[in-house]
Amino acid sequence: MNGTQKGSFRFGRIAGIDLRLHYTWVIIAVLIVFSLGAQFRYTNPDWSTLTIWGAAVITGLLFFAGLILHELSHAMVAKARGLPVNRITLFLLGGVAQIEREPESASTEFWMAIAGPAMSVAFGFACLAIAHFFFGWTLWTMAHNPGAAIFEWLGYINFVLAAFNMIPGFPMDGGRVLRSIIWGVTKNADRATRVAASIGQVVGWLFIVYSLFRLFTGEGIGAIWLAIIGWFLIQAAGNSLALRRSQTALAGLNVSDAMSRDCGNVPGDLSVQEFVDSYLLHTGQRCFVVQENGYLVGLITPHEVRQTERQNWSQARVRDVMRPLAKLHTLAPDTSLFEAMETMAREDVNQMPVVSNGILLGILSRGNLLQILRNRAELTAA
Ligand SMILES: [Zn+2]
Question: pTM for the whole thing?
Fold first, then answer.
């Protein structure tokens, strides 16, 4: 879920973790409040309109607070096990904790995955306890006052949430638990990922088939939502399979094994027009480092050139339009290639300068990575 940072805004911060809302969250929030309103109106026809919608909004807000608690538990276990967590984002399909690396052991994966559903169960019990002790709700009577109705619904929905998340299709929590168990038993992370991701894809297809069936039997929005989750699962499971395959292919290789050493150098005071004419169009290279007095100061690619209006090309200097060093993520030559690939994907960049002690050694591009992956694939196919 790397895409959730764009189009989202920060609304809070807990324990060093940003809480963000993605714009697609609005859709699910509105759906939930409206379906709650309809349900309260149906079960409690004597409530006033204000009570109905007030209760629906409060229930919705507490529901999302529960989702954040669920994601926070994943995040806290991750942090305790040394995996950095940048943010928790609420979006169309619920919540997601952006954990920066994959867990390195089966037990970390297990506790990290189970923590979320465990929290949902605990939150569910807490809500039922509030409904009982504060609003007189019991298991055998219909909830009539708003407090009882709100916390009863929250209690049950969190049990449903925990159960749904424990469906063993990777990358859902249940799929991660399954992967960690296979991983722990077989000591083979590769096989564990293959099995769990394959089941994840099967579960995704079952969701889609089931929701199509429900759509034809007259159910609307709810069915479509399940299909979206199914489609998301299929994508995510496929991605983790591909990621695992590249991890195997890149094993044992460092950045210095793959980087290009002959990067084009451009002086910073060159005009953009000259840069385009005599470097970009002339050499076929796409990425150039800008050096001044022997030091790396930035990077310039066709992307930066396009940001500048064509009529300004003869006035603007390369140093004015380049991506300056301060904004560049650099790699150390002994970083593993797989880690470099993850960083590139996360930062959404196509090339990164390789720097040691302030001196530029080369450039690692997505092209370099693809070349290696392709060569390895040919070798294994042969
Ligand atoms: Zn979860």
Answer: 0.70
